[in-house]
Design brief:
Largest sheet: 3 strands, antiparallel
Number of strands: 3
Radius of gyration: 24 Å
Structural class: mainly alpha
Helix content: 55-70%
Length: about 150
Amino acid sequence: MTLQSQVPDLTWSSMLTQEKPKLIGAIASESGIPIKTIRYYDELGLLKTCGRTEGGYRLFDSDVFVRLKFIKRAQHLGLSLSEIREFLEVHDRGDLPCDQIKVKLEEKLEAIEEQIQQLQILKQELKGLLSGWEKIPEHPEETICPIIERSEVV
């Protein structure tokens, strides 16, 4: 499974051409995103309802599919829902949030580079510990596992 296949395909043109407001169940069915998730996004202010039915059910315009696709793609890139909300607020004011998104993605890239470095250090430490595995005594006293206990805590 590729990373791209984990992001729901919300590009169906039929979704974008329908003007009649849809119930949350229809949005969930057509987008592949669970109702509970859509409700949560709405509660966080990521989505905009166009009203409610007499029974209190949320109604959405077809532009919700564009927002859902953006949210899922942004999450896939490591952005938090809070960050995504900020970007959507910029968009809702009529501006493009591309500059803010670029800064945030650069920060994410730096964090990933740091994580990779830390993982490389851990990898070397684990290799070193495993290379000495054969040298441990059969029944050492007053120790749980000499290999772990001889490793340095950083």
